[in-house]
Structures are given as C-alpha cells and as structure tokens.
## 1
Amino acid sequence: MNITLSNGKVLPIEMHQIKIVQKTHLPPASRRLEAMQEAGFNTFLLRTKDIFLDMLTDSGTNAMSDRQLSAMMASDDAYAGSESFFRLAAAVQEVFGLRFVMPVHQGRAAEHLLAKAFVKPGDAVLMNYHFTTSKAHVDLAGGRVIELFGEDALETCSCNPFKGNLDLGKFAAAVEERGPERIAYVRMEATTNLIGGQPFSMQNLRDVKAMADSFGIPLVFDGSLISENAYFIQQREAEFAGTTLQEIILEMMRNVDILYMSGRKSAAARGGLIATNRKDFYDRILAWLPVYEGFATYGGMSTKEIEAMAVGLREMTDPAVASSSADFIEYFVRRLAEEGVPVVTPAGGLACHLDATRFLPHIPQSQYPAGALAAAIYIASGIRGMERGTISTDRGADGSETLADMELVRLALPRRLYTLSHIEYAIDRLKWLFVHRELIGGLKFVEEPAVLRFFFGRLAPIGGWDERLAEDFRADFGDAC
Ligand code: F0G
C-alpha cells in the first residue's frame, strides 16, 4: 500500500508486522568475487550462504502469513479423498468461480499436462508472450509457440499501462494462415513475466476471448501472477477504478476456459493447480494426472502446501497483499529511473527489471550483457538477480544462437520478504554500478546444456573484468560491505 507523506512524497508501506525472522549475512566483496567465479557466472549456481538479498525469483520464496502456517498444521495426509483437497476446491470456487480443480506439483506440471492433452505435433499455441517452461512443453509435444504481442511490448521505456495485451489483428492473421483446427489453444499470461511483469487489460482479455470463441479455440489463462494483474487493472483501467480485486478476478475468469497457475507466486505457497468449468476439458487433463503427478486429490503436492495454497488464494484478493510487492517495485523503479539507471517502465509486477542493453551498450548481445550485469550486481552488492535475455533463450535446432528480444536483469521482490531499507541499499549499489558500468565486460559459455541452458550453464568473463570491478568496489567501500 502507498501512503503520502507530509512532504507530498509517496511511500510504499508494509501492511504486516514481522513475527518470525531469519538471519541474513552480507559476505565481503572478496568472497562475493570468489563465489561468482565458483558459480560459473551463473546466479542460479550460487549458494544462499553467499547471498545477502535473494532477488532471483518470487517463486516459492514469499513470506507466508500466520493463517497459512496454521492451516498447514491441520492438513489431512490421505492419498485419496483428503479434506485438504476439498478446502482447496472450496477456495477455488469462491475466488475464481471454477468448479473443477486438480492440484499439480507446480506451474510447469500444469503446462506439461495441458500440452499432453491438447497439443498434437504440428499444432500452434498462440500466446501474448511465452514463458520459458510454457514454451518448452509445447515444443516437446511437437507444437510451436506463436507470440502475438503488441507493438511496444518489447520497448523497455514506455508509457503503455498494458504491454501484456495480445494483438487481435495478429490473432486473426495467425488463424487465417493456419486454420483454427491447427491451433491447440490461445494462452494469456497474467503480469507477463518475460517482458517485465507487464499486465494485460480486462478489455483485451474480453476481446481475445470473443475472438477465440468465434474460432472455437479454447482460452487458457496462466494465472501464476493473477493478483498483480488484477491490481494493475484496478489501478490503470478506468472501468475498474472502484471494483474490488475479488470482483476483477471473477470477471477475468468469466473470460477463460482453463485456468492454470503456479501456486508459488501470487498464492504464496508451493504447488500449482488447473481449474475449469468445462467438465470435458477437466476429464481430458485428469487422464494424465495420475501418470505424471499423483491422485486427483493431491496431484504431487504435499497436503500442507495444499492448505497453504487454499489460504493464499483467498489472501491474494486482499489489496494489502496484492499490492505488497507491486508498490515496492514501483518505488524501486521510480527511484532508479530518477537516477538515470535504465529500467523497464511502466513498473510491472514480480520484479524491478533493468535494461542491460541500455545499461551496458558496449557489450554485444552475443556476449550476454544481461548475464554479465547480473554477475556484476552480485559482486557489487551480494544481491542475486536473474538473467532474462539471450542466455535464457536456447539455441535453434541448427545450433545457432537465438538473440533474445530483450536483455533484462530481473530483481524479483518476493511478497512481504524485504523491507524498504533493503530496497534503499539495492538502489544505492545499482547507482554505483551504473557509474562504473564501463568496467563490466561480456561473458562466454564454457559449459552449455541444450535445453533451458540458463539453469545449469557455466560461463567465464571475457577479459578478466570481474577482478577489476571487485578491486574498484573495494577501493570505494573497503572489503567488509
Ligand atoms: N508461468 C509463469 C508466468 C511463471 O512465471 C512460471 C514460473 C511458471 C508458469 C512455471 O511455474 O515454476 O511453478 O513451475 N516462474 C518462475 C520465475 C520460475 O522465477 O519467474 P513453476
């Protein structure tokens, strides 16, 4: 939530108190340099003992509420017929208005089942934008992802409040070209992750649904970040200015055929689900559930997490919860933009995104500027972010490099985990790094997996810039911080 101070400035404020704490630790700059070298310049390969603020992701890392934790204690560990499942089903009915639900172990498991049930070799899946795992499962099923994003979706500096909108003209053209029967489904991703956590508008969702219906194509909604998209609709779309988040979510759901989500983000638990009002779709997907996940009432999830997800779904409709990371991100982005540090605007959900193309214009895309920036941020601050650029984009079938549309570094803000002084620290170190950006050089792969290479790939700095950067940092701040 935002409050206005007596000097007129807007301050995001924590609408919760901290009752359990976990000690953190800021390793000295010399250790950070060493740890980054040991991790092969891949932030995924760092150990948390070497990390001060973990902004890798908001997935499964959110602070849980007292109610979530207490619900976990009362879970029902039955293989079949668990009461925990029925409490989840009641929450799904109440929050989404959807009758049929199946738990899955996390979001990508839902994507796997959807691809199994709907995608035949040669089919296309239309999307407002892909997510890494959603694309991987369509590819593995022999399908092809076609992205239908709008004109300025990939512009990092924009005033468009709804860069996640799907372009209807491109939708019509894709159907015309392939025929509706070769399109498995159209997927709308809330708070579109890889373009900087950017929302779509309700009007766009309604329009996409109307067009999908006219062609008989199912609309699949990735709601992993649904509460933030609902919050942005409330803040940015005039029709919904006075509407509650709960009503906005229900209106969204009236425009989807299948909802799936990772339960690790907006719902602040660990797990996932698929939900629908279409019994025929439910049955088609359910056939695969016991093969890959588990029985219909646990789907590979711990019943404790099912309980936590049920509570988390209700809590995410509370504006204090839905805005908790979005308002901090807005502050983070605004302050960095004021200092001239290149960030993605408008501020989105899930993370503050830095534009590595503008931050490091001297590094060619083939030398992974976003990967280099993520490594440099860690060395200069102990903050772990995530590369979202060419390293996160696998090579084409012929082995050629696929240059990503955008070179971003994502500094995710897990919900309710960090305080404003943590954000102030991050802003300060990013300002320092921007002033010293010429010190940063590129990266090259030394070990490169073929699929989702960003997880386990190892890289090396081109020209030993890491040592120079750490040296300059120590000259300004000493080794201790
Ligand atoms: N869809 C979206 C929009 C996501 O952001 C993610 C995960 C998934 C699906 C897959 O869900 O991880 O539970 O299997 N995003 C995480 C992230 C990994 O860090 O952004 P999952």
Note: The chain has two domains: 2-58+319-477, 66-315.
## 2
Amino acid sequence: MQTIAQAQATIQDDFATEVLNGLSRRPRSIPCRFLYDARGSELFEQITGLEEYYPTRTEIGLLERHADDIAEMAGEDVAIVEFGSGSSRKTEILIAALPELDAYVAIDISAAALSEAAIRLRERFPGLEVITVTGDFNDAIDLPDKLIRTRKLGFFPGSTIGNLGKNEAIGFLKTARELLGADGALLIGVDLKKDESILVPAYDDSEGVTAAFNLNLLTRINRELGGTFDLAKFAHEAIYNAEAGRMEIYITSREDQEVTVLGQPFSFARGERIHTENSHKYALADIAAMAEAAGWTHARAWVDDNNLFSVNMLTQAG
Ligand code: AVJ
C-alpha cells in the first residue's frame, strides 16, 4: 500500500505526463479525472445544485423513494464500498436506510473531499466505521483485510460510469465484481438517453458554473505545471454526439495563440479544442447488456417518472 504522500506524488507526476501527452496528440485531450482538484470538486458540487443539471436531484429522489427496497435487496451486515465518493451526500441516504451496516469504505482522488465527508459521517453515525482510501478507483484497490469476509455492496452513483467508454465501462464493472466478491452487489446510477434540449443545458448552464468547472483545468495547469493559459482566450463547449450517445465537453481556443506548459510551447489555432470529458447516456437495455457482459445480473432498475435517470442493482447469479 502507498502512503498518502506517495499517492499524491504519483497523482502529480501523472498530471504532468497526461497534460503534456494530451496537448501533443491530435485531437487534443486531457483525462477528465484532472478536473477534480479542490476548486474543481467545489465547482462540481455547485453544478449538482443547478436547475439545468437534473442528474443529482433525480438520483437523490430515487434513492430516497426506494431506500427500503434497496436496503432489502442489500441485506444485513454489509459494507458499502463507494467508487469516487466525493462529498458522500448520496451515501448518507443509503447509510441511514441500512442500520445493520458494518462499514463504509469511501474511495476518492480528492483527499480534502474524503476527510471532510469522513468527519461529517462519523459525527452523524457514531457507530459506523468509516474507512477512506485516497486514489483513483480505476486502479487496483486494496480493501482492508478485516473486510475480506464481509459482504460488500458497491456504490457507484452519479453516472460517473458515463465518463468511461462502453468497453472501459464493462472493464470497470468486471474489476468491481472481483473486488466486491462472489456474494457482492453493485448499486449504480446511470444517466438515461434523452432529448438534446435537456442534455445540452445540463452541461452548458446559464450561470456559467460548468464553464468555470471546465476552464478551471487551465487554472490548475497554470498553477501546478507553470502553464501560461489566459482563461479569457478559451471557451467552454458542450455538444451532444448522437452517434456515440454522449455529451462531449471541450475547451476551445478563441483565437490563434501560443501557450507554454512546463516550458514547452503549444500553439492553438482559433477554434482548436481540448477534449476534457465524455458523459455517456444509456437506455436501460444497454445497462443490462453491459452488466451481463461483465458477469453481473441486472436484478432491478429504478427510474423516475420523467425517465431521466436510473439506479440499478447488479447482483451475482449464484
Ligand atoms: C460526474 C461524470 C457524472 O457527466 O454529468 C457534470 C460530470 N461534467 N457537468 C456528468 C459533469 C460537467 C458528471 N459526472
């Protein structure tokens, strides 16, 4: 196991490498996990409260409305393992519905978000063991030994799975199945396919919070990698790619310009873009197919009345 300091150092090196490689290739792209520094996580929290951003409130509504059903399917004496826990706000709903919960393992790349959430949860649920793991949930994760024999309920809300491509998503579901064990289950929130007139504003809101979230990546590059990006010379762009079934987020150059990062020059033509995020949208049948391709059973799906969002319980066949 790495120490937190080592994990942070790895994340830092990784950022430099990914940014230099990402700005060098065509089309340019930088992995979306780098959007979540302290400021990025704060802006994302703000996004979740926006009128146009339907996923968070819809998923919370589903978790609240179906908490008893979910608890019944989860059973007693389980540990929740959350992939990308952020503020753990949604988990709080689950924890409250699962009085026989053994432990809560929160995995996130933001050490700040983890410690803030852990303090709050330990206060609200004094009997609950809260275990935090700083790291990328896509990497191999070591769960504490004492949880080896505890049944595990994975929790992957927020349609974070939408950031991955379809094959990567299946890969994640397989890795999660192995981590959660032969008697494990996975509760996963997945955003549904819908009209562009709802999707585009959700990723390009009228208050400009999503724009600030996306452009904050440039601020982070300036601060951590000695970048010279002038934020006024770049724009946030969100488009729906119907063929790929996903929202695509870009940072687009407003003019011809040159920028340096770690002393290396990069020239941008006007209109040239850096791809910073994908957010895939699925039909329930796609979710079932992906789950089954990864060896899970798609046991149950809960959907809101407007068919905006789904919460899915994946179980093991045996
Ligand atoms: C955290 C990946 C689920 O795709 O809706 C929101 C990220 N980006 N607005 C999403 C996001 C811009 C969000 N996920």
Note: The mean pLDDT is 94.
